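SAMPLE LOG
Freezer: B-3
Tube label: C17
Construct: single chain, 535 aa
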Amino acid sequence: MQVKHKTTLYFLATFMLSWATSVSAQDFFQLRVEPSTLQSVPAIHSGAFGTYNGHWFFIGGRTNGLHGFQPPFAFPSNGINDKIYFTNPDLDSTWSVDVYSLPDSIREPITSSNMQFYLHNSMLYIVGGYGWKDGIQNFVTWPTLTAINLAGLLPAVKNQQPITPYFRQITDSVLAVCGAHLQMLDTTYYLVFGHRFDGYYDRSDTTGFHTQEYTHEIRKFQIADDGVNLQLKNYTAIRDTANFRRRDYNLLHLKDPFKGDGLLAYSGVFRKGIDLPYFNCIEIYPDTFIVRNDFSQTLSQYHSAVAELYDSVWWVQHHLFFGGISMYYVDTLTNSTVTDSLVPFVRTISDVARDIDMNYHEFDAGVRMPALLGTNAYFFADKNAPLIHRHFVHTNAMPQGGRIGFLTGGIESPELNISFTDPSLSSCSNKIFEVYLDKSTGIKPTALNNDVLDYYGYPNPTSSVTTIHFQLNREMTLTIELCDINGKVLQQIRNGVFDTGTHVIKVDMNSFSAGTYSIVLKSSTHRRAIKVVKK
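STRUCTURE (predicted):
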């Protein structure tokens, strides 16, 4: 099936990014995000995607919005993507085929959600994923590795020929993972973090509808593939129960001038014993890993559309995060960093820059996505964008006003905390945006100050008492106040000098009526606010 049509969207956003070795940057670039005229791209999120032979491919994932949290209604069957799509962006044309001609053992895993995948030459490997199994009438995390020959599949889809010959599969329990990532360093595959989730999805872990087990591991193996037979070889695993308990995060490439090629895991969810995200990142190399507790990623904690750029003059790599879900966002009116422990959908566009001295700097773009977009969305690098170190758009080689790529798909939410009201009101975005790089000088982006880290309240919502937590990188004089939704101060909680380190303060809300409040932390240079819901 071929689809081709065009309409026009109206949105323009620009923001400034720094391209130097510190927050006192010398050279700057303007990133421009504009609506695309492309209209044939399918609306999908949380599936396998990539570029092959000038075509974007989409396999698996979801076509509805947020999956929902109440069994048995979460992950409804009408939201399964049961088609394989190939889009040629130059022609604005898409070809598709449904997957019902495939055996169930192959069809069901490749129509799951949050699977792991990697494209090696023309062979796409899909690992795990969470989806429905007809044979047991329940959800499982698939213990499968499916190899898909895109060199044969692409012309078969275009010509409406049988697709079954281009699929092969093996099973192994170590592959039963979802919410992770699959990447390759040298000839070794890295299946990084994630969890195994079997049964109906439920927000609570005590209802008995499911079992869940985080891998706490980086699983390493090679794939022996002669075109007929598949086999895992040289399997090993690195285990860390303190740092590797995370899923639904971003895993990007890392080019270290001293250690060479690596991987960089940002944030993710959830901490043990508390439904809040991580803020640190983890560097992964072939012979070691490094937990970077000296950095706190404030503006993005969940899997989102991301782009990788590299400045070869200053030896700085940039990871750009487009929207998504975050516990922090910057209020455009007050320019203060707002903390929402409910971890909402956000419109933030941010940049994390890693300099030659291996220090991390986070920048707020200052402008936003046009809506609450970006969660589980896709970024496709432009085919003409120059690359460096295989994976990064080379900013120094980009022409003035050149296009670096496209943003497609993902979840669009009508409100910040839709997961606590009505997730069915969210949708899969059909909006397409193009991202351009305009070279400019003299305007600096906003660097986030990390003197106050890890500021949150828990439990939230609360029926009586919540406890606020924060960490200071230096001694500071702070005022902490409880305010109503309009900003009126209801109670001063603390006022004084706080030492460097971690602070834990109980806030008694028994005397206040049900509703939404803010706990505001203020200093001469900071203003951070937590939204707290009193039940």
